[in-house]
C-alpha cells in the first residue's frame, strides 16, 4: 500500500492553553505557540495533506473532575472500579468557550470529540479508557490514510495515548516536537521514549518531517 499521510492535531483548546488562561493550561502554550501550530497546519493542508483533529468534550458531571468527588482536589489519584483515575479541574466542558478548538476549524477534514462518556476518561482519540472506540480509525481508513504526523497537547497525555493507539492500529506515526507541549519535563521525555520504543519517529520540526518522507 502506498503511504498516504494525514496530519493529526491533538486538543489545541482554550482550557489547555496559557493564552486563554485555561483551567488546565499546559506550560508554554502562549498565543505564539497556537499561531505557529495553525501556520504549520495551513502549510501542510496547502501541500495536500488531509488534516484531522481531536477535541476533549466533557459533560459537566465527568468522572475526571475533582469537583465531582467530594473532598478531593485536582491531581489527586483515586481508584474507580479497579482502574486508576487522575482528577482534574473541570475543563473542556461541552459548549463552553474554552472547549473550542483554537486552530481554524476550516482546515480540518474532521475533528473527533472524545471524553463524552461521563464514566470514562479519554486521552486517546481512538478510544476511551473503557475501550469504546471513537470514529477516528474509521475516518482515517475511509480516507486511505496509512501514516499520521501528530502534534498538539499534551505530549505526555493525549499525544502519547493517541500515538500508542495509532501504532497499535497499524499506522505509521511521526511526532513533531516543535508543536507539542507537555505537562512536565520528565513525563514528556518518558512519553517520547515510549513512543519511539513502540515504533514512532520523533522529528524536531515540520521541515524535518517533510524532508524525511
Gross geometry: globular
* Rg computed from alpha carbons, rounded to a whole number of angstroms: 16 Å
Provide the β-strand percentage band. 15-25%
Secondary-structure class: alpha/beta
Count of strand segments: 8
The proportion of residues forming helix, as a percent range, comes to 25-40%
Low-confidence stretches: none
The largest β sheet comes out as: 6 strands, parallel
Q: How are the strands ordered across the major sheet?
A: 5-2-1-6-7-8
Break the fold down into its secondary structure elements and pairings:
Elements: E1 5-10, H1 31-46, E2 50-56, E3 77-80, E4 83-86, E5 110-114, H2 136-142, E6 147-152, H3 155-168, E7 172-176, H4 185-198, E8 201-203, H5 206-211
Could you explain how this protein is built, in words?
- The longest helix is centred in the N-terminal third of the chain and has 16 residues, at 31-46.
- The chain has a 6-stranded parallel sheet with strand order 5-2-1-6-7-8, sandwiched between helices.
- It has a domain at 154-160 and 172-199.
- It contains 5 helices and 8 strands.
- Helices cover 27% and strands 19% of the residues.
- The chain starts with a strand and ends with a helix.
- Helix 3 packs parallel to helix 4.
- The protein is an alpha/beta fold.
- Helix 3 links the parallel strand 6 and strand 7 (172-176).
Summarize the structure.
With 213 residues, the chain is α/β, with parallel strands linked by helices. It has helices spanning 31-46, 136-142, 155-168, 185-198, 206-211; strands at 5-10, 50-56, 77-80, 83-86, 110-114, 147-152, 172-176, 201-203.
Amino acid at each position: 500500500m502506498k503511504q498516504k499521510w494525514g496530519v493529526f492535531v491533538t486538543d489545541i483548546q482554550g482550557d489547555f492553553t496559557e493564552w486563554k488562561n485555561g483551567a488546565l493550561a499546559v506550560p508554554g502554550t502562549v498565543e505564539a505557540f497556537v499561531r505557529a501550530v495553525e501556520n504549520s497546519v495551513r502549510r501542510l493542508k496547502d501541500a495536500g495533506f488531509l488534516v484531522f483533529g481531536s477535541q476533549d468534550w466533557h459533560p459537566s458531571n465527568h468522572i475526571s473532575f475533582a469537583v465531582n468527588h467530594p473532598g478531593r482536589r485536582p491531581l489527586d489519584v483515586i481508584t474507580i472500579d479497579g482502574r486508576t483515575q487522575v482528577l482534574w479541574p473541570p475543563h473542556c466542558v461541552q459548549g463552553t468557550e474554552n472547549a473550542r478548538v483554537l486552530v481554524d476549524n476550516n482546515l480540518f477534514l474532521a475533528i473527533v470529540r472524545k471524553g463524552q462518556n461521563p464514566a470514562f476518561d479519554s486521552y486517546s482519540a481512538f478510544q476511551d479508557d473503557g475501550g469504546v472506540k471513537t470514529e477516528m480509525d474509521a475516518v482515517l481508513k475511509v480516507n486511505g490514510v496509512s501514516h499520521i504526523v501528530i502534534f498538539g497537547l499534551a505530549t505526555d497525555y493525549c499525544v502519547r495515548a493517541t500515538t500508542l493507539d495509532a501504532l497499535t492500529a497499524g499506522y505509521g506515526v511521526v511526532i513533531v516536537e516543535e508543536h507539542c507541549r507537555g505537562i512536565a519535563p520528565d513525563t514528556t521525555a518518558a512519553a517520547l521514549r515510549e513512543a519511539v520504543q513502540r515504533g514512532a519517529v520523533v522529528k524536531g520540526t515540520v521541515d524535518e518531517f517533510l524532508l524525511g518522507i
